[in-house]
Amino acid sequence: MNTATQSPENTAEGVEALMNRLGQAARAAATMMAASSTAARNNALLALAARIRSEADTLKTRNAIDIYAAESNGLSAPMVDRLRLTDKVIETMAQSCEQVAALPDPVGEMTNLRRRPTGITVGQMRVPIGVFGMIFESRPNVTIEAASLAIKSGNGCVLRGGSEAIESNKALWALVQAALADAGLPKDAVQLVPTTDRAAVGRLIAMPEYVDVIIPRGGKGLIERISQEAKVPVIKHLDGNCHTYVDAEVDLDLAVKVTDNAKTQKYSPCNATESLLVHVAQAAAFLPRIGKVFADKGVEMRADARAKAILADVPGAQVVEATEQDWYEEYLAPVIAVKVVDSLDEAIAHINRYGSHHTDAILTTNHPNGMRFIREVDSASVMINASTRFADGFEYGLGAEIGISTDKFHARGPVGLEGLTSLKFVVLGQGEVRG
Amino acid sequence: MNTATQSPENTAEGVEALMNRLGQAARAAATMMAASSTAARNNALLALAARIRSEADTLKTRNAIDIYAAESNGLSAPMVDRLRLTDKVIETMAQSCEQVAALPDPVGEMTNLRRRPTGITVGQMRVPIGVFGMIFESRPNVTIEAASLAIKSGNGCVLRGGSEAIESNKALWALVQAALADAGLPKDAVQLVPTTDRAAVGRLIAMPEYVDVIIPRGGKGLIERISQEAKVPVIKHLDGNCHTYVDAEVDLDLAVKVTDNAKTQKYSPCNATESLLVHVAQAAAFLPRIGKVFADKGVEMRADARAKAILADVPGAQVVEATEQDWYEEYLAPVIAVKVVDSLDEAIAHINRYGSHHTDAILTTNHPNGMRFIREVDSASVMINASTRFADGFEYGLGAEIGISTDKFHARGPVGLEGLTSLKFVVLGQGEVRG
């Protein structure tokens, strides 16, 4: 345990030199990962699951160092809880590695092979992107999530976790490197930034020679700063101001059930509904019913004048007048913005103007309206008659989720293994030449 | 012809305000284009073809102004030729609009729809990206190419052509706007930057609120500068240092024919082969034959020591010793770098190190070697037994080509209509909620 890779923060090496070394090592290893067999990558994931289970006590001991420091530094109890590697968290990490191992291998898949008039056959092959950088906070299990997706997709990665979880992350990372070695794969494929120096992030996001894409998780401020300063593409979303729109023609029971779920099943996720739009034709019928649900659950309603006039009569409802700012807001709390609209057009225009292009749903029995909504709402996920809470890589069947993108380039929406790959063209010929 | 949109360069309006106005107009129109019918967009393309033919004389008159200025400014004859709107160029533009109209509509296509255990159906819908900015030089027909692909793909665009073609571009753009209006589509969907002020480019590439992606065509220096300064993704390639690798097991007749075509069919395209790698087992048999072809066609060979020793005996061969720099070079001329390698591994490593990740081919009869090559060579197009000259949107069956990308994100290789679109997730439910 005394090599330079394992404890460079104790050396005189500068952060830039350190990051260059990690990046270079990841890049070289990624080339080998890209050429590795499906079996070797799956074996590494199974070995990792086994090591997580067999080293549970070590993980808890190292985790205790982070917990002690966090408590000494006065971190709030919920923050400390997020750091904790309990038996349940440890078993879940092990299982997630096994689940990723069981997914189909995205690498090397060839699609769209077609014969051209010249005789050549042209198609596309899915290959790893190369090396991704991941920046995350608190929960140390993200180290295992990111590492397992890197291994499965044949990429290298450089992980930068939160300083409060550094001991836990190092312990987990040691298991990842050992599991790679178990499977005959280069252990340098997964790198962990071993220093808490913030300059490391600045370098990580600006070395295209070693790192092809950055995936940040964390607060909006952090992600905005990373996006502005990065010299490589960033897979990200900033906000989840998701809308549920209740159309003029709708099954009211369905609308109440889905809107309730979209808002209240959990308040903190980015795919929870934050704004409710109701067509004027259903306002008088729908708003009192959903208003009662929200009143019973203590959800505050920030309503426009027309919605307020109806909701004010609901016993126990907390209704306040919405300001312009409310239409932009991602509350992540028992608060919802409510607006009555005169048409589908107005609903679509409102969502495209105020929304965050994350996830938006229409509840309707009218087929053309549903089709117009999903085509014209410019968001990563668009839904008909379903809860916005479904916007999730596992619910979509991707098998895993490394992040959610609200950009239109490359991966959009929940990002699984495919978002970590690239499609190159392959041409299969028998000596054809161009005329 | 006296509205502000048509001649803003004559007003006191600043370039930034001008570009903001063009961008805003394109953004607003793009929303309508995204929602427009397939028929309307195809009608616009057919109307454009008709107008190009019926206004051929006007086009030639306006083009003559550019030609006169170019000749007065002492532009070289080949440069002036590239500017010229001949009857043939005009007819080709009209036909290309008809060909784009005949392509399948990429917009609204839904794929991968699958039922999930929860009951929801999840898939992806292809939608326009929004607005692209295109920066190009000399040939005015690019105005029609870019406009027709924007119309077909339901995008808006802001075009910035070369100052030497400004009158021709304006005349073509007027036809585009008229054709959009013919079809009941917003004419603002296609904007032309009407000023030759270079500050316009700086603004075009840095207004993500209006322009989603930049596609530059031109010299490497221009594209590098744009890539560094752009605040939005750039679809681009810098070099085409393409390789042809002759493997240890190969059909020599095929190898001579394909290598000849890859190098000499045309010298200037980015997909012409610039470096030839030959396995040592075939060097003595293959190099004299290809050396004779190159000698006869006046192609200079920059060879490593082992290749030079063989090629020196070929009558009439122009052989010089290669320097390290030759392995990086994109000659775009009757010059080729030649190297003997000891293994497939060495060939792959050489290509990944010195190449430009554009297009590389292996000529082999050995199946595992072919498969390893196409998997491990990290380029946008990889080929077995075919000429690198095939790397082209039309040859690949994309129906059109807006550019070629050597990046791994989003579109890679020749970029057709799909590269101008984005995939969003669609969820079709019957009132499902998340548990």
From TrEMBL, chains A, B:
Domain Aldehyde dehydrogenase: 15-293, 323-391
GO molecular function terms noted in the UniProt entry: glutamate-5-semialdehyde dehydrogenase activity; NADP binding
UniProt KW keywords: Amino-acid biosynthesis, Cytoplasm, NADP, Oxidoreductase, Proline biosynthesis
Gene Ontology biological process: L-proline biosynthetic process
TM ranges: none
Compartment list: Cytoplasm
CDD domains for the chain: ALDH_F18-19_ProA-GPR
Pathway participation: Amino-acid biosynthesis; L-proline biosynthesis; L-glutamate 5-semialdehyde from L-glutamate: step 2/2
Catalytic activity: L-glutamate 5-semialdehyde + phosphate + NADP(+) = L-glutamyl 5-phosphate + NADPH + H(+)
Top EC category: oxidoreductase
E.C. number(s) listed in UniProt: 1.2.1.41
Superkingdom of source: Bacteria
PANTHER family per UniProt: DELTA-1-PYRROLINE-5-CARBOXYLATE SYNTHASE, GLUTAMATE SEMIALDEHYDE DEHYDROGENASE
UniProt record similarity statement: Belongs to the gamma-glutamyl phosphate reductase family.
Annotated HAMAP family: ProA
Record's function text: Catalyzes the NADPH-dependent reduction of L-glutamate 5-phosphate into L-glutamate 5-semialdehyde and phosphate. The product spontaneously undergoes cyclization to form 1-pyrroline-5-carboxylate.
Name of the protein: Gamma-glutamyl phosphate reductase
Lineage: Bacteria, Pseudomonadati, Pseudomonadota, Betaproteobacteria, Burkholderiales
Gene, per the UniProt record: proA
